[in-house]
Amino acid sequence: MRIITYHDITNPARFAEQIAYLNERYDFVGLPSVRDGLLKGITPASDREQLVITFDDAYPSVYTEAFPVLKQLGIPATVFVISGLVGTEEPYWWEEIPYYAPSKWTAAERKAKVWEVKKWPDEKRLQYIQELKKNSPLPRLTRKQLGWPELLELQQAGWTIANHTHTHPMMDRCSTEEMARQVGRCRKMLDDNGCRGGRWFAYPNGNASLEAERILRQEGIELAFMFDHKVSRPETRTPLRVSRLSMDSEASVLKTWLIVSGLHSEYMKLRRSVGL
């Protein structure tokens, strides 16, 4: 089984090409098939390999661009939702840092700062963003997020609307209490609004830990997905650390094949091993 994850769909035409290519070679299945395989030992009836599509963060383009393509082909998918953003005009916090950063910073410095902040304790991250906003002369940054009606429309079409925390902190940078609050609040909001995927979780940024796994079990999470750019293999797959391959809508068909085949992740591992 291959599991791929997208974020923002920035190139809709290329995305459609990717899906058409993959549709000729794989059987697309939803998260219930992952659950059945992992937790119930049910094997697929088809000889073709299964492919699961997921989207992290519920970017509006998932609804406006990806959904029409997948709906036309009857392909299910999963959206991992940040519940605190649903139906708001709040931006993603990783957009706020480059936007509110000092004007003298270059684009590279702004991007590097986001990656640096992801390593900080969560309270420090929140304080830093508040200080940036307080000291910036720029108008408030906004982004129209998907609402519950759009998410329920996706669910009605066979998609799964699942748990990606309430505000997207790095789980391994949070206190035990905050981890529980983030997971539990997102699950409750999903349940209260009629979304049935609250027990299925994706780690923000892929940041997992043993303590995070303990909290997920405590909060009733059945499956949790990584962001590790690896093929999900039966011999290494566990319910709370299911691997996913990172995909973006800018990839050519050739690169799409390299990613889904697992060759791209092996190539990247080799590059890291030799310091490239």
What would a concise description of this structure say?
This protein is of the alpha/beta class and 276 residues long. It is 45% helix and 12% strand.
Walk me through what this model shows.
By secondary structure, the chain is an alpha/beta fold. The protein has two domains: 2-89 and 146-273, TIM Barrel (Alpha-Beta Barrel); 93-135. It is 45% helix and 12% strand. The protein has helices at residues 12-23, 31-39, 60-73, 93-100, 107-117, 122-135, 148-156, 176-192, 210-218, 253-261, 263-273, and strands at residues 2-6, 27-28, 50-56, 78-81, 160-163, 197-202, 223-225, 245-246. Strands 1, 2, 3, 4, 5, 6, 7 and 8 form an eight-stranded parallel β-sheet that branches.
